Amino acid sequence: MTPKSDAAISLTVNGTDHRLAVPPAAPLLDVLRNDLRLNGPKFGCGLGQCGACTVLIDGLAARACTIPAGSVAGRRIVTLEGLSRDGRLDAVQEAFVAEQAVQCGYCLNGMIMTLKALTLRDPAPDERAIREALRYNLCRCGTHLEILAAARRACGLRPDARLSARDGGA
Amino acid sequence: MTDAARTGDQEEARLVIERGSASGSAETFLIVHADGRVTGHNGHVDLGTGIATALAQIVAEELDAAPDQVAMVLGDTGRTPDQGPTIASETIQVAAVPLRKAAAQARGILLSRAARLLDAAPEDLAIEAGLVFAPGSNRRLGFGEILAGATIRAELDLATPVKPAEAYRLVGTSLPRVDIPDKVSGRATYVHDVRLPGMLHGRVVRPPYAGRDSGDFIGRSLLFVDRASVASLPGFVELVVIADFVGIVCEREDQAAEAARRLKIAWREPPPLPGLDDLAAALTAHPATPRTLSDHGDVEAVLPGSAVRLKRRYVWPYQMHASIGPSCAVADFRDGLLTLWSGTQNPHMLRGDLCRLLQLPPERIDIRRHEAAGCYGRNCADDVSADASLLSRAVGRPVRVQLTRAEEHAWEPKGAAQLIDVEGGLSADGGLAAYDFETRYPSNRGPNLALLLTGAISPDPQPSDMGDRTAIPPYRYAAERIRVHDMAPIVRASWMRGVSAMPNSFAHESFIDELAAAAVEDPVAFRLRHLKDPRAAELVRATAGRAGWVERSGPRRTGDGSGEGGKLYGQGFAYAVYVHGAFPGTAAAHAAWIAEVAVDRRTGEVALERVVVGHDTGQMINPAGVRHQIHGNVVQSASRVLKEEVAFENSTVASRDWGSYPIAQFPEIPDVDVLMLPRPADPPLGVGESASVPSAAAIANAIFDATGVRFRELPFTPERIKAGLDAAWGAPAPPARLEPAAPAPAPGTVSPRRRPPLLRRLLAPVLAGLAATIGTAAVGLVLRAPIAPVAPPDPATWSAATLERGRQLAALGDCAVCHTVPGGSANAGGRAIETPFGTVYSTNITPDPETGIGAWSYPAFARAMREGISRDGRHLYPAFPYSAFAKTGEADLEALYAHLMAQPPVRATPPATALAFPFNLRPLMAGWNALYHKAEALRPVVSRSEAWNRGRYLVEGLGHCSACHSPRNPLGAEKRGAAHLSGGIADGWHAPALDGTGEAPLGWTQDALYAYLRTGRSAEHGAAAGSMAPVVASLTGVPDTDIRAMAVYLASLSKAAPQGDRQAEAARLVAASEADIRPAQSLGARLYDGACAVCHRSGAEATLFNAGTPLALTTAVNAAAPDNLIRTIFGGLAPAASGAHSAMPGFAETFTDRQVAALVSYLRSRFARGRAPWDDVEARVAKIRASLSEASTAGG
């Protein structure tokens, strides 16, 4: 059955509970961006392919563009804006600043959120785990080398560690 | 940053350096504000390249200001000079020149004023961190104090001397990028993040000729558009139609997206596109005007006498800019004034286009440039800016438009395909005797789409002259002829990073490598002998030294010792200088690549392992920024060379997502070592593109070093390389087969997907006769008496317990699933149910006396449920599963009746069911009933548990599972006995067998059945899809004990109980399915990797919210027919009410039939190993797509 468009949904985002009169079938991404005015998650493909819309849901990376807002009531949603504590950036964000790991920055939200999810489940991943975690996060500027350096820094590895595809790649 | 600058931009005391522009209004280059802040103004924009930082660095340097004292305003048409599009890597090299002069000029003005205040000579004063002082004095003046309330406007003087490079303190240092902290925290405002009060959301609906922009059908293809199809949708504001421009405006973004999907619209079929599978043929046949760029030494005379003569052809595919964020703009058109927030790369050019589109003078258009997704050339940013402007003009309110991924992919002006033919030769002494080079580049500047769609400009093919970039080779050939064939686009195309220089250099640098091999010389030494430019030679030597270049006189074919089937390693060299601007153009930075590859002989995969890049860009403003650009160029160009190619199908672009247009992924990223030659005294050269230019040839030359085989057509996909190696060496002895041989189908089996149409065709005459016979024999049973209507009973007569029981039973019986149209009132009927005999429409079972069952007494209801007879005596069709319902006990039927009668009545007359003869003869159902229907309750089986008996009662009775899960005979009756619950068909979906004979790779356990029925998903099998999803949703209202009982009974039907360690078995299946999944070696494999694997790969459940089931475990991939898989790919999945899974997106609008078929066949081969491939998948895909579009038309 098609949900009525005026039905209210509940969302818990960055620690705040919201009750919103939005269509439950609306993509979570649209609701975060347009109704909650959050700029962190970005629309990239609408198909869950590129990762630009990534948020954390109950600590896991989640592709907000494919998730109907009405399907995640009661779950803890965290966006890029919710990572900082007391005005201080999260260690993953700080690593991106330190490594200047941004060109246009449109994919950046997904990179940071995916790596945050990685560090939550594995505080000490190796190079292969980092690359595998980011496999389905796409960047078109080719900032991969800087992003990998930031990821290594955030994961306690040497940022300038080098690794050929022979050891850790596809 | 642009915002910060904007806040202080009021009329105030300040020093302005400006130039009277052609239109009479002044163009601003620099402002020193009263508070001492400085803003530099530049007509170019920051595309994520860091030029906002580098330009601020230049300004701060000339002024000796503190770096954080300076901000840049980039690209706003109201406030920056028109410096043309941000292309050709010219911002630092060209556009920064007047800015630097302006800063130097401001410095002079400030110093002369300070000299008066400090009573010193200007030349004696110094500035440090924005403070002016006389050496030896303690008094320091800020810029604001020096201005002291005065407003000074000075005409830009390009003769102003600037600082000598040796005096630089900021330029040449790696200052951090100014934009990164805000981007990392989510504070940055991209154009996508602009929100205005009262802003609406727009979506465009594009014509079917995606990616084309010339021909008389452009702007003239709309046949009709049905406003009524969207006008009543929630949030609808306006539909805007101007020739072929169609847009919809709604209150919410999701509403606009839905409206765009629902809009009924018809277009004229576009004329066919020339075949682009053979690009060389298409480019050779395309009309062109030859232009000779260089001709000396009489090539035609020299070539025949060459000692070695080579003729080579190089083919470059269409590629995409592929911005990671689809283009977006916000327009506010009010009172004849347009304010536009845009991510354009070309603000002033866009303003010109909008003047034409909207018939406005330039001063009525204010473009505010915001950062956007990187574009590397011309993406749809300008197009969407015009879209938003048209929509805002129509509604008089601000409108935001963001394109979809498919629209951006399909419509962006592509990086053009290119064809280069080279013929050249060596003299007897190994010298470069002759070089005859012809290049074809079908591209222009990508006219604004709205201008074309609305008919504001003519869609005549317009060529451009941009095919000549770096067309002149860097080597000294004794005789040389260089020609470019200027041609109009074939598909919409425009400049893309490296423009034509990248393909041209692919040819130059591949060819010189071939000549070196022919001369039996080392490729680097050979180049050094013939390079014209000593500065280039210096870079080549330095790069070779850095990389540890191994001298060779031919391909080394280095293996890893594992022999045939192993990997081959190679190192390849290429050098190029990127020349931009009108011919002969201006050189940007020089770049040299040494690429190291590993070629897998077995799969054809080329792994790019390491790239050493030498780079000479003259003076570097911000070395870290330069390095960043080099890295980006290396990674992006490697992606283009190894993976990228736009697909065309049905005369349009078929690459509409990241599955059909894959780009580099993290595990493939090579190690990159950058050598930047220090040249602080030389002028800065553009760095935005140069490091891309040598990529293709360096990689091709490395593959040659590894294999001895030349590749001259991109991309170097595994299939292309493997085919090339096989052709050169003969196919290798087949390795262990990747896919098991297809087992022959069992004799006598008929593929179920063929059954309905085939049987119907063959049996129809027989059936008619048979049915007539039954009808005659059973004539005494035909006429059934109506049961008198009653007044609707008062629900108060039933107890709360009875009503609750009835509610549960209605949920169990899924009444509302069939008796409700999608989106309609519950139980009001009208849903179309497809049967082999035609479409049956469900009836209204709300208690409305006239259109529903309000006038039905309980006996009438019970007779219908048990015997299939309507209150008026008519026979019901067994699409209504009364043969199952008949097994229900009296008390339950009464409770169900009570529940239905207590629901709100809905007045609604569903469409009449009208089957074809003979099935339209309802009395024949009496005969059917005599043959197939037994109206009796189930008797408990005493040897079985109470739960089992309860489960059986629910499954076989009101649950009516067999209605879908049992096969039916030619007369539509469920088969019994061994065939009972052995699988059937529902709404075009295959309902799998429930008796343990199904195709699920892991058998169903009681726990799995319980999880599936309770939550809509079993981790071992996947999610409920198709008609089963609403069934599970309905079962939400059934108590846990009953769901468990159903699981107990269903599990008992399995002839063989699942055994062993199921988790281990699941893990084994999944691991086996993914063992040789990489590299992707086919279209299907690439689609899976780009579109499916992110959610369905093994391990995704531990890392990704809403991950899908690994496909090796799913029934759909293992089933006898591909229908369920195809339907799921088309339609996706809705979330389960239980939260067990969220949605899966559908791909009907993304993939072509050919792509879906390739994907489906691939999935079968990889994730259902050991099962026979499906036949005729593409035809099946087309058939299902047609049925879906019929359904949407009927339902819409």
Describe this structure in words.
- The complex is a heterodimer of chains A (170) and B (1196).
- Chain A has two domains: 8-82, Ubiquitin-like (UB roll) (Roll); 91-168, Orthogonal Bundle (DNA polymerase, domain 1), CATH 1.10.150.120.
- In chain A, 31% of the residues lie in helices and 14% in strands.
- The longest helix of chain A has 14 residues, at 108-121.
- A five-stranded mixed beta sheet of chain A has the order 2-1-5-3-4, with helices on both faces.
- With 170 residues, chain A is an alpha+beta fold.
- Chain A has helices at 28-35, 91-98, 108-121, 127-133, 144-154, 165-168, and strands at residues 8-13, 16-21, 54-57, 60-63, 76-78.
- The model of chain A is unreliable at 1-5 and 164-170 (pLDDT under 50).
- Chain A starts with 7 loop residues before the first strand and ends with a helix.
- Chain B is an alpha+beta fold and 1196 residues long.
- Chain B has five domains: 2-177, Aldehyde Oxidoreductase, domain 4, CATH 3.30.365; 191-271 and 327-402, Aldehyde oxidase/xanthine dehydrogenase, molybdopterin binding domain (Aldehyde Oxidoreductase, domain 4), CATH 3.30.365.10; 418-729, Aldehyde oxidase/xanthine dehydrogenase, molybdopterin binding domain (Aldehyde Oxidoreductase, domain 4, 2-Layer Sandwich); 785-937, no CATH class; 963-1195, Cytochrome Bc1 Complex, Chain D, domain 2, CATH 1.10.760.
- Chain B has a seven-stranded mixed beta sheet with strand order 11-12-9-19-16-17-18, sandwiched between helices.
- In chain B, β26 (567-580) and β27 form a beta hairpin.
- The longest helix of chain B has 28 residues, at 91-118.
- Chain B is globular, with a radius of gyration of 37 Å.
- In chain B, 54% of the residues are buried.
